[in-house]
Amino acid sequence: xxxxxxxxxGYVTHDIDRAIDLMSSNFGLSDYVMFDPAxxxxxxxxxxxxxxxxxxxxxxxxxxxxxxxxxxxxTRVLYRDALAADVTDYVxxxxxVAVRRPTLEALRAEVKQLGFPFLMDGEVPGFVFYYIDVxxxxxxHVEMTWATDEMWAFNQWPADKPAPRNLRT
Length: 169
What we know:
By secondary structure, this protein is α+β, with helices and mostly antiparallel strands. The chain has a single domain, classed as 2,3-Dihydroxybiphenyl 1,2-Dioxygenase, domain 1 (Roll), CATH 3.10.180. The chain is about 20% helix and about 40% strand. It contains five helices and eight strands, in the order βαβββαβαββαβα. It has helices spanning about 15-25, 75, 105-115, 135-140, 150-155; strands at about 5-10, 35-45, 45-60, 65-70, 95-100, 120-125, 125-135, 140-145. The protein has an eight-stranded mixed barrel. Strand 3 and strand 4 (about 65-70) form a beta hairpin. The termini are close together.
């Protein structure tokens, strides 16, 4: 059930413009949805942080690729396990997969039931996310999400990709 409705692979970079060029020319990604910058208060195990990043979303078939460029130290520390040590290195590095949940209640219940530590959680109007720290079990984070239909449409959810309905099957 945990990986049901996987829809995104998330990558971090020191230079999102160069990373977009690399992903577009090598992997045919286009039509990016940009959050420039995303400025979101997040909760972490170490208290609140001022999350600030440039973000780009693009679809490859039914898989969304997310590129994230942290813009401040509060945000860089959240991605330090994946960011290249060399700040001139713009090659995107894998950080997480994301899964979609059908309701906010289902999302919160599953996060609580799983009991894994978290990296951060937060929300913007129409979108709630939890980054679950499962690095000891699988080597990366999992972002668990819920959003309104309007937010999924804004993020260009593919018309032919079914939305999650029932987590029991």
